[in-house]
What we know:
Layout: H1 3-33, H2 37-41, E1 44-52, E2 55-60, H3 61-74, E3 77-86, E4 92-101, E5 105-115, E6 120-130
Parallel strand pairs: 1-6
Antiparallel strand pairs: 1-2, 3-4, 4-5, 5-6
Amino acid sequence: MNPLYVLLFLFFNFSTNNALQTDIVDDLVVQFKNGNSRDIAKNFASSVELLIIDQEDVYSKAQAEQILKDFFVKNPPIKTTIIHRLNSNPNFRYGIFSLQTKGLKYRVTLTLMHQKTTNAFLITELRIEKD
């Protein structure tokens, strides 16, 4: 086989895989910027460890969506900036980003685990803390 074909195949294969791995974090950052609790909740696991400012507990998907919706009503988002992401593990994703709202700046941390049944990454932990 021609070495050039092998090189091209490897390049496109790794590029495509890396792009797919980062999509979920990128999508969630956009959803946070838009204050879209419903679309964010679509990515929640059946139970979510949620910390928003001083309120921390494990909530069902529906409860976590409502709490996040209340947060966005009180803190309308303006801007998001990715600080750090981890996507080297095929079963785990981690993202940290800054969320600027009309009132304050927050640090958002997302932990996502790969669910084999749905073949998707779902949020298992969400932390929103004052920056």
